[in-house]
Amino acid sequence: MGSAVRALEFRDPARGRALARTLARLTQEIGRNPVSVMHVCGSHEQAIARFGLRASFPHALEVIMGPGCPVCVTDLPEVDEAVALALQGVRVATYGDIVRVRGTARSLADAQAEGGRIDVVYSVTQAIELARRSDEEVVFFATGFETTAVATAAALLDDPPPNLSILSAHKFIPPVMEIVAEMPATRVEGFLAAGHAATITGSAIFEAFVAQHGIPVVIAGFEPLDILAGLARLLELIRDGMPRVANMYPRCVTDAGNRVAQERLWRVFRAVGGCWRGIAHVPNGNLRLRDEWAARDARRRFRIDLGRAVDGTPHTLAPQCICGDIMAGIASPDRCPLFGTRCTPQSPVGACMVSSEGTCRIWHEYGGHPDLGATA
Amino acid sequence: MCLGVPGRVVEVDGFLAVVDFWGVRKEIRLDVVDAPVAAGDYVLNHVGFAIRRIPAEDVAETLALYETLLAELDAGDPMAADVRGELGAAGAARRG
Question: What is the ipTM of this complex?
């Protein structure tokens, strides 16, 4: 339905208006223009855009989406590996959002058009079912943050059929916040942490970050009012110069997090440094299978021949795509010359327009910056 | 994909549970949930796995957002599509 601006939708309009006034007062008390805060979650951006929340933000408050789209930050060489496996005749099962994202020269959809076998699944358990019903090798190309990696880990620990292996592109959110906080161009004064990733890791994981960077972190849920309340708490901490962790989503997030899930996660994965598309090298940002799981690791099980996967020309519009700056929170989609004209969900150039969690896709569907009468 | 979806547990069999999502029964894995789960509990689910038992007093507040999204008929709505994807991640229930 394009970029039509939706009406503000609140279950409790009075509380919504009160929170909007609080945001305006706190931003004024901070006294800087702009005050920039970042969230790192595609679902937060969906809620902010879908419910038209930016229209209720004070003009001086910038709420930026950082690297919160797992499909978007999956690096080109990771897509190339999956494409290469598919072109080598290995059956590749993966989540739908990644299929149309290009690597160096091809996407998995391109590989499929060239005869590769790609299966879209909603869950790793469906990849396991495919492997169970087949004699062929099945590789699960595993994308997503720690929330999703937990499911991959649990599946491996449950003795899947021997013809299933994992190509892990899983990413770990806390380390990338360090990288983005250090980028001079972003000037982030506070982070809104993703509620459901923190369900796994717990809120305490952010204490070290806050101590080191002096930037507050508030964990928030996904209701419009959850997000406004989370932002109000974040602005309070910025105003008071009190960098600390505040959990505004206690119904889903505890201090220690989900220890059962953490134990499974770290029994299967280890955090290693690696590149995130558009961001940089992120120390400890990639989750890879531990040595004990070498037999299940597609990178060690197959000789991945990248030759054909990277042979070809990148998208002709790729040099103009600013997905990298958008994921780093330096630019918004409306700054991109391709946005909404030559780059659309039907014909995407960059990953941010492909995934339902990509900033460009979300802004294209909902309208990103309504500014309803908020312009000074 | 970062947005889990809540559902009500109908029955538990080891690490598997039948969970009711707005009238549709699906199978969910319990390997990584943070607390023991019994019939009647609400759990937050992501890619076919329960990741959190939702405290009883918080259930109503947690469900409201999803009810708004599931009422969304526009196929292009990415947030509603993600919620439907999560529902697709749960296996069709074998019983119930």
Answer: 0.88
